[in-house]
Structures are given as structure tokens and as C-alpha cells.
Design a protein that fits this description.
The protein has about 80 residues and is of the alpha+beta class. The protein has a domain of about 50 residues. About 70% of the residues lie in helices and about 15% in strands. The chain is built from 2 helices and 2 strands. The protein has a two-stranded antiparallel sheet. Strand 1 and strand 2 form a beta hairpin. Helix 1 packs antiparallel against helix 2. The longest helix is centred in the last third of the chain and has 30 residues. The model has no long low-confidence stretch (mean pLDDT about 75).
Length: about 80
């Protein structure tokens, strides 16, 4: 698919596919929006922070599980 290389003054930082870059971005964006939505429903800042952390961990766990599942299914 689409490959990208991040160039800095010290050289290449890493390579990967576009999906591997976008997945954490989507997870964090979802966690931020969810925690802000909970905050506007009358919650306090501590509750919003707790939900942001939990949504980030949950989304990351689901992403790792989904990547493992897709790798297993496609290797058959």
C-alpha cells in the first residue's frame, strides 16, 4: 500500500504503512472526542481525564487484537 518514511536532520526515523500511522491518530481522536462529550454532559475534568485514558487503552487493545486477528486470517 502506501509507504512513508519520516526524514529528520539525523536521518530516517522509521518506515511503515499509512494505516499504521493513521490508526493511533484515530484512536486518540476518538478518545478526545469521547472524553470531551462526557465532560459537556455535566461531568468534571477528572472524569473526562479518566475516560480519555480508559478510551485510549481500550482502543489500543482493540487495535492490537484486530491486527493480530487480520494477520492470522490473511496468513491462511
Amino acid at each position: 500500500m502506501f509507504e512513508f518514511i519520516i526524514e529528520t536532520e539525523r536521518g530516517q526515523v522509521g518506515t511503515g504503512t499509512l494505516i499504521e500511522f493513521l490508526l493511533p491518530s484515530v484512536i486518540l481522536f476518538n478518545a478526545v472526542l469521547s472524553s470531551v462529550t462526557i465532560r459537556t454532559d455535566g461531568g468534571d475534568k477528572a472524569n473526562a481525564s479518566l475516560h480519555f485514558v480508559l478510551m485510549t487503552w481500550l482502543g489500543s487493545g482493540v487495535a492490537v487484537f484486530a491486527k493480530h486477528l487480520v494477520t492470522t486470517v490473511l496468513s491462511i
